[in-house]
Amino acid sequence: MSTDQMRDIVKEKYAAAALRAQAEKASCCGTGAGQSSCCDPITSGLYSERESGEVPELAIRASLGCGNPTALAELKPGEVVLDLGSGGGIDVLLSAKRVGPTGKAYGLDMTDEMLALARENQRKAGVANAEFLKGEIENIPLPDNSVDVIISNCVINLAADKDRVLAEAFRVLKPGGRFAVSDVVVRGEIPSEIRRSVELWVGCLSGALDESDYIARLQRAGFDEVSVEPTRVYKLEDAREFLSGHGLDVDAIAPLVDGRFFSGFVRARKPVGAA
Ligand SMILES: C[S@@+](CC[C@H](N)C(=O)[O-])C[C@H]1O[C@@H](n2cnc3c(N)ncnc32)[C@H](O)[C@@H]1O
Fold it and tell me: How far is the CA of 154 from the centre of ligand 1 (A)?
């Protein structure tokens, strides 16, 4: 399947997820249709009560991430933040509050329905220092050296050309800027049935990079201070949950992925001397 075809499938899935969130039905990143996100092993329970209280309820309901990058990115007042694949906007709105009126938070997403949802959430939250941009994370519509912090929540695993995304992230970051991303990451061998599943790709799993490969790609893109820190490791029962409903032999495959998928916080820095 070509990169463009894969991107169209991802767009279709997340357009439907945005509409489901607006229709007050749960949707989710990691598991099959019809699964409630309240119990999804990947997307559930990512935000504190305090954080949930800072954004509209719809932004929480539309959340499809696998971590909480804003909590881990150590954002400071005045910084410019860019969220790659901002979805319903939860991390952009939280970032906008952290960087304050002298800073700015951009969200970038390719799916019109998600952008509409994010802008609606921004309006409800009354946040002025945020802006949602339409575009692809492979072609970021911002100038070179213009962003202090790149965040992202469970999106880079969806990109067919990850090196291109990392090169673009490097380009738009200011020298010394931080890459602070939550993503699904793999440790060890994954059965080929999983790697081949388009449904599991759009569910954030089969496109996940191996930990050492992720580190190597970031270094090749020019980043230093690269690290990957697991925030939630998926065990056998979680694997059963997210593999079911995709036409796979769950009893045979789930034990093979026990502990091999994890949500991680991926950090890196653009060197201060980099142009
Ligand atoms: C799993 S959802 C995560 C949304 C959000 N980060 C969150 O935590 O709720 C993936 C989002 O990334 C967007 N997306 C996926 N691939 C993209 C790409 N190549 N360029 C821009 N947006 C993309 C989708 O439209 C969707 O809104």
Answer: 7
